[in-house]
Write a structure and sequence with these properties.
Elements: E1 3-6, E2 13-17, H1 22-39, H2 44-60, H3 62-73, H4 77-101, E3 105-107, E4 114-121, E5 124-128, H5 136-148, E6 151-155, H6 161-173, E7 181-183, H7 188-195, E8 201-207, H8 210-222, E9 226-230, E10 235-239, H9 245-257, E11 267-273, H10 274-289, H11 309-324, E12 328-331, E13 346-349, E14 366-372, H12 375-383, E15 387-388, E16 392-394, H13 398-407, E17 414-415, E18 430-431, E19 434-435, H14 440-445, E20 448-455
Parallel strand pairs: 5-6, 5-8, 6-7, 8-9, 10-11, 10-16, 11-14, 13-14, 16-17
Antiparallel strand pairs: 1-2, 3-4, 4-20, 9-19, 12-13, 15-18
Organism: Kocuria flava
GO molecular function, one term: aldehyde dehydrogenase [NAD(P)+] activity
Protein name: Succinate-semialdehyde dehydrogenase
C-alpha cells in the first residue's frame, strides 16, 4: 500500500510516505493501550481542556489546514474552510457536553434499591477513515472517545497522508499525551492481521465503501469486536411540488455538487412528482450546466476536480453505461481535456434498472432525475435502494413533507433542506449504509461500557 499525496487538479505527486513495519504497528498498539490506562484516570475537566485547545488550533489554522486538503483531495477551498470550522465545533461540543452525557442514568428497579448506568471507556478504538472529509471523519470518532477516556489509533486513507500527519501534530500541540491519539500508515493486511485482533483494541469504526465495511466487519466479528460502519449512500431528494422552485433547485445543486458530489450523504437520486417534473428538470439542468469546474484554490469555485483520475473514470463509466443503454444526458457527461481528475456536472434522466446508475452509488457530480406519479410512488422508489443513509423531502406543505419523510427508510431525513450534519445531531444509516451512530449523545455511547451499579434496598 502506497501512502502518497497526488494533487488531483494537476496529477502531480507531491509527497510519498513509507508504510509502517509490522513492528512499528505493534508498538503503536501497545503504546496506545498504556496511554489508555493513564488517560482514563485523567480528570474529565483536564480532558475537556485539551479538547478545547485542539478546537482552538483548528480555528487558528483554518486557512493552512484548508489549503492542505484542497491540494490533497481537491476540495474547493471555501468548502475546505467550512469543514475545518465544523471540526472545531465538534471538538468543542464534546468538551462542553461530555460530562452531562456521562453523568449516569438513574433507574427505578422493580426489585427496589438504587440503580444507575454509567458510561466507562473500553480501551483503544481503531478508526479507518476515508479521503473525502479528511478532518471531519476523524473528529466524529476522536472527539467523543477521547472525552470518554478511550484512546484512538487512526488509519487514514492512503491518498491523504499529509492531512493525517498534521492532525496527529495538532493533538500534540494541544497538550494530549503522546500516545492518546496515534496515526499509523498501516496496510490493509496489517489492520486485519495485527491491529483488529489485538486484545487491547476494543472497537473499530470505519467510514468507507460497502466492500471495505464488509471486510472489516468480518475480521472484527471473528475477534468479537464492536464495529460502527458508515458506508455508502444513494440519498433520495424528493420534490413534491413546484412551489418555491428557485430555492428547491438551489438546494438540489448544493446537495449534489458539494465536495464534487463525493459525499455519502450527497443528494443523488432526484425523485420528482409529475406536476413538478418538467419545471424542475429544466431549471435544475440549467443550474447544473452553469457550474464551471474551476481551480479549487479559488474562493469562487463550486466544483473542483474529483479525488483522483481513477475516481473520475469510475464515475464516467457509470454515466457512459447509462447513456449507452438509453438514458438522456441533459447536461455534462464529459471528461475535461486537462491534466487531473476533471469532469462536468451532469444530469441524467430515463435511468432504468438495467443501468448501473439505477442502484449503484455515484460518487461524483452526477444527478439522476426520476419522474413519479405521486407521493406513494416516490416513497416506493426512494426505499427501493439497497442504501439507507440520508435523504430529504421538499414541499410547500411542510406537514405533508414530514409525513413522506417518516415513510422513507433511512437513518436521517431532512425536510426542506438537503442532508446535512451538526455536532449535536446523530449521524448514521440503515440497510447497506451501515450500523451504529456518530455525533450527538449517540457518538459517546457506541464505544462505552454501559455499566450497571445496583445497590439493594436497605432493611
Amino acid at each position: 500500500m502506497t501512502y502518497a499525496t497526488v494533487n488531483p487538479a494537476t496529477g502531480e505527486t507531491v509527497e510519498e510516505f513509507p508504510t509502517a513495519t509490522d513492528a512499528e504497528v505493534r508498538d503503536v498498539i501497545e503504546r496506545s493501550h498504556r496511554a489508555h490506562l493513564s488517560w482514563r484516570r485523567t480528570p474529565l475537566e483536564e480532558r475537556a481542556g485539551a479538547v478545547h485547545r485542539l478546537a482552538g488550533l483548528y480555528r487558528e489554522r483554518k486557512r493552512e489546514l484548508a489549503a492542505l486538503i484542497t491540494e490533497e483531495m481537491g476540495k474547493p477551498v471555501r468548502q475546505a474552510v467550512g469543514e475545518v470550522l465544523l471540526v472545531a465545533d465538534i471538538y468543542d461540543f464534546y468538551a462542553e457536553h461530555a460530562a452531562r452525557f456521562m453523568a449516569g442514568e438513574r433507574l427505578e428497579p422493580s426489585t427496589g434499591g438504587d440503580a444507575v448506568v454509567v458510561l466507562e471507556p473500553v480501551g483503544t478504538v481503531l478508526g479507518i477513515m476515508p479521503w473525502n472529509y479528511p478532518y471531519y471523519q476523524v473528529a466524529r470518532l476522536a472527539a467523543p472517545n477521547l472525552m470518554l477516556g478511550n484512546t484512538v489509533v487512526l488509519k487514514h486513507a492512503p491518498s491523504v497522508p499529509r492531512s493525517a500527519r498534521v492532525q496527529e501534530q495538532l493533538f500534540r500541540e494541544a497538550g494530549f499525551p503522546e500516545d492518546v491519539y496515534r496515526n499509523v500508515f498501516a496496510s490493509d493486511e496489517q489492520i486485519a492481521e495485527i491491529v483488529i485482533p489485538a486484545p487491547t483494541v476494543r472497537g473499530v469504526s470505519l467510514t468507507g465503501s460497502e466492500r471495505a465495511g464488509s471486510a472489516v466487519a468480518a475480521v472484527a466479528g471473528r475477534h468479537l469486536k464492536k464495529v460502527v460502519l458508515e458506508l455508502g449512500g444513494s440519498d433520495p431528494f424528493v420534490v413534491l411540488d413546484a412551489e418555491d422552485l428557485d430555492a428547491v433547485v438551489e438546494r438540489a445543486v448544493q446537495g449534489r455538487l458539494g465536495n464534487a458530489g463525493q459525499a455519502c450523504t450527497a443528494a443523488k437520486r432526484f425523485i420528482v412528482l409529475e406536476e413538478a417534473y418538467e419545471p424542475f428538470l429544466e431549471a435544475f439542468t440549467a443550474a447544473m450546466g452553469a457550474v464551471e469546474p474551476g481551480d479549487p484554490r479559488e474562493k469562487r469555485t463550486v466544483l473542483g476536480p474529483l479525488s483522483s483520475v481513477a475516481a473520475r473514470d469510475g464515475v464516467m463509466a457509470q454515466v457512459e453505461d447509462a447513456a449507452a443503454k438509453g438514458a438522456t444526458v441533459h447536461t455534462g457527461g464529459r471528461r475535461l481535456d486537462r491534466p487531473g481528475a476533471w469532469m462536468e456536472a451532469t444530469v441524467l434522466s430515463g435511468v432504468t434498472p438495467r443501468m448501473r446508475a439505477w442502484d449503484e452509488e455515484i460518487f461524483g457530480p452526477v444527478a439522476v432525475v426520476h419522474r413519479v406519479a405521486d407521493a406513494d410512488e416516490a416513497v416506493e422508489l426512494a426505499n427501493g435502494s439497497p442504501f439507507g443513509l440520508g435523504g430529504s423531502v421538499h414541499g410547500a406543505d411542510v406537514e405533508a413533507a414530514r409525513r413522506v419523510a417518516e415513510r422513507i427508510e433511512s437513518g436521517m431525513v431532512f425536510v426542506n433542506e438537503h442532508t446535512g450534519t451538526a455536532p449535536d445531531l446523530p449521524f448514521g444509516g440503515t440497510k447497506r449504509s451501515g450500523v451504529g451512530r456518530e455525533l450527538g449523545r449517540s457518538g459517546i455511547e457506541e464505544f462505552a461500557n454501559k455499566k450497571l451499579i445496583h445497590t439493594p434496598k436497605r432493611g
